[in-house]
Amino acid sequence: MPDTDLPTPSPIPELDSLNRERFEQEVLPAGRPVVIRGLVRDWPIVRAGLQSDEAVVAYLRQFDSGNSFDTAIGPPSTGGRLFYNDDLSALNFRMGGAKLQSTLDYILSSRDDEDPPAVAIQSVPVRQTLPGYEMQNRLPLLDPAIEPRIWIGNRVIIAAHHDPSENIACVAAGRRRFTLFPPDQIGNLYIGPLELTPAGAVVSMVSFDAPELDKYPRFPEALAHAQVADLEPGDAIYIPYLWWHHVRSLAALNILVNYWWSPPGAGIGKPRQAMLHAMLALNDMTPAHRDAWRAHFEHYVFGANGDPGEHLPENRRGILGEPDPETLRKFRTAIVQAMSSG
User: Fold this and answer.
1) Rounded distance, CA 114 to CA 182, Å?
2) Residue 2 pLDDT more than 60?
């Protein structure tokens, strides 16, 4: 970042090795990011990428099923930053389907251009699109049922965002810089519109290259809590649930493979939808009424006073205990009716 007066993010803690048992017993429960150096260095795709861009492209082509991939394309004026236009009425890139071979050919042919268009194949599940790839490039840390997704592009910048899932991301080719922020830094990252997002997740409005501190004065506080790491081919990073992450691709050709999964006990409903409904229901209330409801949310949702149903008989706790299917059905019906009635 150009402003030397800004806080410098601290390094993300690193491990040189990690097995599934240690990941599940130590890393996951801690809920903190960690870089695992060389975790997938033995993947064939990594070995091909270390040879040359041409070698990794040839490696991927053997699995090409001919399907179209979701691809973002932005003009050179974006500087590689896939974001909004100036008035936030639209995005500064377009999404469309593109064939893998033609996209890879384009990235190779334009890699020496000074300011090429931004190109990014985004979040493509591999089992149907690259059949056979997964058999050769497995991640032993996770349940094999979790499907890998592939990301391919040139020097693009993805604004800080979060995912409602656990995430392990592995650099297969190129290099990437990850800058992470804890979930509680949401107020210092200046989040963009909820209705229009670059890829389904809300993003920070702050450009890390030109932070505009007059508009975003709390951003230095976010940086004071940030962690950063540059990942090389074969390295991996664990990004915990809802942690914000800004991702910068540093090479002319970059390939990432990631794994998303929901943690056990993730809940029956969808937290984001619950939050949006709460916003609609509470935002126009008087401050006193909002504070009263805050106490109820703290008590029932976040357990500020302990288990809110522990004083009730187990068979009378309803939604406060282990609800049976009939109780869940009644609650779901009541919620749908309440939302439908406005």
Assistant:
1) 35
2) no
Residue type for 107, please? I
Q: Is 324's pLDDT higher than 90? A: no
Task: Supply the DSSP string of 32-93, one letter for each residue.
Answer: --EEETTTTTTSHHHHHHHH-HHHHHHHHHTT--S-EEEEEEE-GGGTTEE-B-TTSSSBSS
How far lies 281's CA from each of 115, 333, 335, in Å? 47, 18, 12
Q: Write down the residue that tokens 């601290």 correspond to.
A: 10
Whether 266 shows a pLDDT value over 60: the answer reads no
Give the span between the Cα atoms of 27 and 263, in whole angstroms.
13
Strands 244-249 and 176-181: antiparallel
| SS3 category, 261 | strand
Length of the chain counted residue by residue? 342
pLDDT value at position 270? 80
295 alpha carbon, distance to own chain's centre: 31
Q: Answer whether 278's CB lies under 8 Å from 284's CB.
A: no
> What CA–CA distance (Å, rounded) separates 166 from 111?
33
Model confidence band, residue 4 (pLDDT cutoffs 50, 70, 90): low
- pLDDT for 180 equals 98
Q: How confident is the model at residue 328 (pLDDT cuts 50, 70, 90)?
A: confident
- Other Cβ atoms less than 10 A from the Cβ of 313: the count is 8
User: Any idea which residue has 């810089």 for tokens?
Assistant: 177
User: What DSSP designation does 313 have?
Assistant: -
Burial class (CB in 10 A: 0-12, 13-18, 19+), 264: exposed
pLDDT at 135 over 90: yes
pTM of the model: 0.91
